[in-house]
């Protein structure tokens, strides 16, 4: 593994060459259309996360890349070579499975050596490579143990070592952290990310956990009911969600249904001026962009004020998420620092510039 | 057994009932073993003049040993046939999708519940029609085909427990389909296959109904014993039965040890044997 190229950092997608090119991938199981028209590129050295709810098709997409499923249409290209015509064992792609899928009848060491043995490498080079791979994931002490005798986190490391020892161009990870408890999970997120930087190969990581996606990814591909909703860096996707679904799935948001005419934006009883085309619009306003108004009286320049009653208060450590109901029926989520004991009727304000227009998410069946 | 102890304190009747049931099950075997050492032959109670004479006479009886040899050969071949056809059938049931699969499953499993008389009679008619002379070969074919369903169910159960992701992981790591079958699928099925072989072997060893229809000139052990019984019970038969009993017990214990040393959940046969050996 020491000979794997070190690219140094998880570089941004645009800077590096494309490694994997998915072109209009579609897949159905019977009448169930699981994936439609997926076109997505993975750059060299990139950490790309495919994020989606269960049933969004994310695992199917991963299985198509690995070769366990065949797409009904579309093409896969990797390093200028048609990938989707090759059987799984001829692809320079390796997978870390959701439940690790370690071989129970082999020891940790034999599990890691498996991929080298079946490709008939010389036994002496195998043992040194296995040794290095186990050292990299700090599992040398467990080399002779059977998988059933080690913990979930350790199995995870062995699965990683087993895949990486093959020196793949691309590593696929199918919700590898979902079986771990919260603390270990956070620790593994950091470890995985630094491991990826170290070996410098591309990772395609599947998860349903948006926080995990934000922490680890260079880019996130948000999948919704078999179609890509948005592909962008975590910051971009959070700050500029393209659709209402993205805005809601990545973090919390308030979706305001507004009417615009002559640069006047109306939302129930609230109104302000804004640069939006005439007609109906949908605005995403993050809870952290709404503040408790500091003093009563007229709002500061360009601020919108509203009054509302506290309906619910969720303590979240550093912050608190308030649910506020206005007299006209509008409900706002507001994030505040967690110190005050809010009660009754309160006054809030926000900068209308923080209300980002988003597309209505398309109906899909 | 600990459950019986708790109940024991409550009611002595339950204990007596349990003892009666066990006596009903095991007393005949105990008597058979005791009388195989009885100097006075099959008659006379209590047994006296303990002797190994019957065993000496048994070892000198070439007809019995010939039938034992025949039975072992038949059972061995039956295991080979049943596994050879049953493993692919189980694989097909587990993973292939084809029209008529539900029907195929029932047809494969049917011989398990089909009475031996029907199997034997139908095979006899088949062999007669096709002018095949009855011999040990016809018995082998009879046992082999009748016991395919045992191999299929056992191996199918093993395949159902096998995590498919393991085979995918193997392909993913560069092993082709054949390497994956040999290195991952088969080792995971090892216990099911040994269990099936053991079950088929024992079932074949004491099979009478099918053998009875298909017997040629050479006897299997059960038919040899059955034939001699018409001339009355002899102490030699007690002796050979005792030997069979000891060997079966040894085989079961061996199998249990084997299973314990391996890992993974027990198959049907293993569960059954584990229950017998541990007695719980």
Low-pLDDT residue spans of chain B: none
Strand residue content of chain A: 25-35%
Q: Please tell me the CATH architecture of chain B by its name.
A: Orthogonal Bundle
What spatial form of chain A do the alpha-carbon principal axes imply? elongated
Would you list the SSEs of chain A in sequence order as H and E?
Answer: EEEHEEEHHHEHEHEEHHEEEEEEEEEE
**Unreliable stretches of chain A:** 1-14
What do the pLDDT scores of chain A average to? 88
Question: Can you tell me the number of structural domains of chain B?
Answer: 1
Strand order of the largest sheet of chain A: 6-7-8-3-9-10
- Highest-level CATH class of chain B: Mainly Alpha
Oligomer: heterodimer
Strand elements of chain B, count: 0
Report the total helices of chain B: 14
Report what the structure shows.
The complex is a heterodimer of chains A (365) and B (280). Chain A contains eight helices and 20 strands. With 365 residues, chain A is of the alpha+beta class. In chain A, helix 2 packs parallel to helix 4. Chain B is mainly alpha-helical. Chain B has one domain: MetI-like fold, CATH 1.10.3720.10. Chain B is globular and about 70 Å long. The mean pLDDT of chain B is 83. Chains A and B meet through strand 6 and helix 2 of A and helix 9 and helix 10 of B.
């Amino acid at each position: 593994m020491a000979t794997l190229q070190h690219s140094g950092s998880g570089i941004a997608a645009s800077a590096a060459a494309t490694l994997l090119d998915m072109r209009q991938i579609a897949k159905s199981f019977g009448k169930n259309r699981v994936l439609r028209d997926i076109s997505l590129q993975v750059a060299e050295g990139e950490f790309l996360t495919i994020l989606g709810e269960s049933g969004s098709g994310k695992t199917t997409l991963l299985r198509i890349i690995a070769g366990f499923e065949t797409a009904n249409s579309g093409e896969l290209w990797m390093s200028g070579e048609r990938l989707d015509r090759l059987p799984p064992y001829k692809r320079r792609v390796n997978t870390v499975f959701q439940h690790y899928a370690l071989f129970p009848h082999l020891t940790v060491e034999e599990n890691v050596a498996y991929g080298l043995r079946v490709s008939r490498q010389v036994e002496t080079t195998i043992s040194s490579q296995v040794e290095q791979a186990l050292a990299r994931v700090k599992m040398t002490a467990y080399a002779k143990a059977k998988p059933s005798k080690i913990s979930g986190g350790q199995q995870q490391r062995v699965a990683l070592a087993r895949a990486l020892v093959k020196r793949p161009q691309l590593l696929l990870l199918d919700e590898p952290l979902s079986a771990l408890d919260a603390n270990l999970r956070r620790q593994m997120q950091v470890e995985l990310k630094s491991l990826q930087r170290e070996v410098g190969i591309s990772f395609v990581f599947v998860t349903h956990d948006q926080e995990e996606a934000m922490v680890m990814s260079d880019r996130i591909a948000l999948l919704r009911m078999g179609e890509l909703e948005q592909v962008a860096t975590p910051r971009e996707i959070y700050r500029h969600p393209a659709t209402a679904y993205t805005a809601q799935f990545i973090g919390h948001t308030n979706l305001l249904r507004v009417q615009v005419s002559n640069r006047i934006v109306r939302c129930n009883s609230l109104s302000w001026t804004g640069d939006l085309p005439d007609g109906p619009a949908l605005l995403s306003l993050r809870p952290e962009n709404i503040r408790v108004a500091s003093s009563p009286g007229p709002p500061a320049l360009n601020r919108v004020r509203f009054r509302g009653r506290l309906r619910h208060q969720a303590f979240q450590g550093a912050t608190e998420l308030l649910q506020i109901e206005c007299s006209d029926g509008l409900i706002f989520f507001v994030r505040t620092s967690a110190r005050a004991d809010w009660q009754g009727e309160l006054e809030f304000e926000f900068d209308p510039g923080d209300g980002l227009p988003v597309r209505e998410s398309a109906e899909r069946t | 057994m600990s459950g019986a102890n708790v109940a024991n304190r409550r009611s002595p009747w339950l204990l007596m009932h349990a003892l009666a049931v066990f006596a009903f099950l095991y007393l005949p075997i105990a008597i058979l073993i005791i009388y195989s050492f009885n100097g006075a032959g099959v008659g006379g109670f209590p047994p006296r003049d303990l002797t190994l004479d019957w065993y000496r006479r048994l070892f000198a009886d070439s007809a019995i040993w010939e039938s034992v040899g025949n039975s072992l050969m038949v059972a061995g071949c039956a295991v080979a046939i049943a596994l050879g056809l049953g493993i692919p059938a189980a694989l097909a049931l587990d993973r292939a999708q084809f029209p008529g699969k539900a029907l195929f499953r029932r047809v494969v499993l049917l011989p398990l519940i089909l009475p031996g008389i029907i199997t034997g009679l139908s095979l006899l008619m088949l062999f007669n029609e096709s002018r095949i002379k009855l011999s040990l070969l016809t018995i082998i074919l009879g046992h082999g085909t009748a016991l395919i369903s045992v191999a299929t169910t056992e191996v199918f159960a093993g395949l159902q427990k096998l995590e498919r992701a393991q085979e995918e992981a193997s392909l993913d790591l560069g092993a082709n389909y054949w390497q994956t079958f040999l290195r991952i699928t088969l080792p995971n099925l090892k216990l099911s296959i040994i269990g099936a072989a053991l079950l088929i072997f024992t079932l074949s060893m004491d099979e009478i109904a099918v053998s009875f229809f298909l017997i040629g000139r050479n006897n299997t052990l059960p038919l040899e014993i059955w034939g001699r019984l018409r001339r009355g019970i002899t102490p030699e038969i007690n002796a050979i039965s005792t030997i069979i009993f000891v060997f079966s017990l040894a085989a079961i214990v061996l199998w249990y040890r084997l299973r314990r040393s391996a890992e993974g959940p027990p198959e049907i046969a293993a569960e059954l044997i584990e229950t017998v050996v541990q007695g719980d």
